[in-house]
Amino acid sequence: MSEDAKTPPTPVDVGETYEVEIEDTGKEGDGIARIDNFVVFIPDAEVGEEVKIEIKTVKHTFAVGEIVE
After folding, report:
1. pLDDT tens column, 8-46
2. Residue 33 phi, psi (nearest 5)
3. Which domains does the chain have, with CATH numbers?
4. The 3-state secondary structure of the chain, one letter per residue
5. pTM score, two decimals?
6. d(CA 44, CA 68)
7. What is the C-alpha separation between 30 and 43, in angstroms, rounded?
8. What is the pLDDT of residue 5?
9. Residue-averaged pLDDT of the chain
10. By the 8 A CB rule, do 12 and 18 touch?
11. Looking at residue 8, what is its pLDDT?
């Protein structure tokens, strides 16, 4: 089995944009949204906001986005 087969693909990629709703706040104060149950942290976002984000970083268990609108 290859390494790729062991790690499930993430539902987001760097550079993609999404319309998301901020559902929660992380312990560092970042907003949290979910895309297909995948956690995305968005700095400077508040719970309840609907924002357009661009994905900046993708890890195995989470991503980091930036508000673009």
Report:
1. 789 999 999 999 999 999 999 999 999 999 999 999 999
2. -125, 165
3. 3-67 (2.40.50.140)
4. CCHHHHCCCCCCCCCCEEEEECCEECCCCCEEEEECCEEEEECCCCCCCEEEEEEEEECCCEEEEEECC
5. 0.86
6. 12
7. 4
8. 53
9. 91
10. yes
11. 72
Whether residue 4 has pLDDT greater than 90: no
In the predicted structure, residue 62 carries a pLDDT above the cut 60: yes
26-61: b (≥16 Cβ within 10 Å) or e: eeeebbbbebeeebbbbeebeeeeebebebeebeee
Length of the chain counted residue by residue? 69
Residue with tokens 């559902």: 23
